[in-house]
């Protein structure tokens, strides 16, 4: 299966075998839909909102974490408070780089960053983003409560 990358090249978007084996049919169906996006015509915000249309709290987290920025001056965004946080979803390299690579995600691409964030959400809910919960928590109080546990 192919998808159009932000840079305009066609690339395969793999579903890591470990996810495919454990994923419900709903998750796989959502992932299939996300692959078909024409990302050249979308802003990062539009892409993130579309990608997480089934989990709107994740789009709000992206707004709070990165202001919907993935690249700044041609470089993958680094966190202002924690430089190891990378990209639109501010995935922390120290905690997640090794696992993301093992699962086949490249957190330095927009596509891989949001896909790995979805994986984290499926496994841990909003807990990985608890540091920004004061920003997004009012809009999603149930997610806020879960993140704070």
Structural class: mainly alpha
Q: Mean pLDDT, as a whole number?
A: 80
User: Which regions have little confidence, pLDDT < 50, spanning 5+ residues?
Assistant: 1-25
Percent range of helical residues = 40-55%
Short description:
The protein is built from 8 helices and 6 strands, in the order E-E-H-H-H-H-E-E-E-E-H-H-H-H. It is mostly helical.
Give a verbal description of the structure.
The protein is built from 8 helices and 6 strands; from the N terminus they run ββααααββββαααα. The chain is mainly alpha-helical. It has one domain (2-137). The strands form 3 sheets. The chain has a two-stranded antiparallel ribbon. A two-stranded antiparallel ribbon has the order 3-4. A two-stranded antiparallel ribbon has the order 5-6. The longest helix has 15 residues, at 110-124. The chain is globular and about 35 Å long.
Ordered list of secondary-structure elements with their pairings:
Layout: E1 2-4, E2 10-12, H1 17-22, H2 25-35, H3 44-51, H4 56-66, E3 71-72, E4 75-76, E5 85-86, E6 91-92, H5 93-102, H6 110-124, H7 133-136, H8 141-148
Antiparallel strand pairs: 1-2, 3-4, 5-6
Helix pairs in contact: 3-4
List the defining traits of the structure above.
single chain, 149 residues, two-stranded antiparallel sheet, globular, disordered N terminus, Lysozyme-like_dom_sf
